Amino acid sequence: MKDQKHNNQSSKELEEQEMNLQDSAATPSEAQSDETMTNDKADSASEETKEPTAEDTIAELSEKCADLADKNLRMMAEFDNYRRRTSREKLELQKTAGESIFRDMLPLIDDFERAQDAMTKTDDINAIRDGIKLIYQKFMTFLEKNDVRPIETEDMKFDTAFHEAITTFPAPTPEQKGMIIDCTQRGYTLGDKVIRYAKVVVGE
To answer: What is the CATH number of the domain that holds 183?
Structure first.
């Protein structure tokens, strides 16, 4: 009886030992599995934070350079088209402006021709004088219409911006020193630009 009990106890102990051995054998496998998962996660994280290679950088820079070169070519083509268009418009404007001026001058030429014809058919000096005066007034109106105006010289102080002194003359009075005494050729401005300086005599 005692021997049977002892045998049962030994058998039980053996079973427990076998179970412990199985547990201990299973543990390294689980640990290995956990380590594998950890390594996989580390490799994945390493791939995500991986820095670009030199080839990737060169490819990216080459693409940017090609894009900039294309944009530069487009801008140059647009500027060239703009330059040609403005040059053509400028030439057309100059032609149109010149045509308008000459067209407005034709009536003045007609007046001169009529005055010449009248001078051969009449001896009335006053009529000829009035006709020439009328043509002169019309011509001055034409100049003013085109923003051409005479430079004032009478009782004006000499100004190198508008006047050209051809000679000096003793001033009749002290107040006339540096003043314009006489004008030998009238000057004109076109807008704010002098197109011909007035030739004057200056008192000294």
So the answer is: 2.30.22.10
